[in-house]
Amino acid sequence: MDLTITQVDAFTDKPFAGNPAAVCLLPEPRDASWMQLVAREMNLSETAFLVPAGDEFGLRWFTPAAEVALCGHATLASAHFLWEHEHCGPNRPIRFHTLSGVLAAERRDSWIDMDFPATPPEPAAPPEGLEAALGVKAIYVGRSRFDYLLELESEQAVRGAQPDFGSLLRVNTRGVTITSRASGAHYDFVSRFFAPAVGVNEDPVTGSAHCCLGPFWKQRLGRDSLIGYQASARGGTVRTCCQGDRVLLSGQAVTVARGKLCV
Fold it and tell me: Do residues 151 and 136 share a domain?
């Protein structure tokens, strides 16, 4: 049986930008080893697998190397796919059952709002070799549920960082976010995200990192609603709105390719 697989660029309103994710809607659950092989074949930072569960959906995310517990851009891509192909009513929120609990997505004009758990950082000593591997000097180091967060002195420092991924791979963490206040008026903060431990040297736009970045910058800037720009080569915009122990992540998405898996 052939299965359709769709590639969606997430956190962007134009093709060939943002973060690409593959989305595969399965008629029934498949085992993790098969999904991992498909994700490796797609060779994108994330491949999302959806399984209908009544009016809701099971959702799992795989990098080319590992399953992950939380992924924003592939959730955004999945919601965009489901509405675009009319698997869900246009005005009905979508609920996803995931390793991080139930996540919800809702359409708002051309944007999609996603209700995610907040993962604020706590101050932490940087592990040995972290700053050297990133080639940066941090003015703050914290640790969230998943990753390290380093605040740098300027947007220029964030954009100019050139990590040594071999050295970074030896640091015991899923990933590392570097961030600073934005230098211009269009965004409140900028960031980049590196995760060689799960097979993604630099992720183009990372929704789950903004579950940490939203609370972090709320505390510093004193506002619940903020606009972040992830300054990778592809680049992408994420809006964050902190609501208690949750964060609304908002983004746009564009379908760029459809194909068949011959299985």
Answer: yes
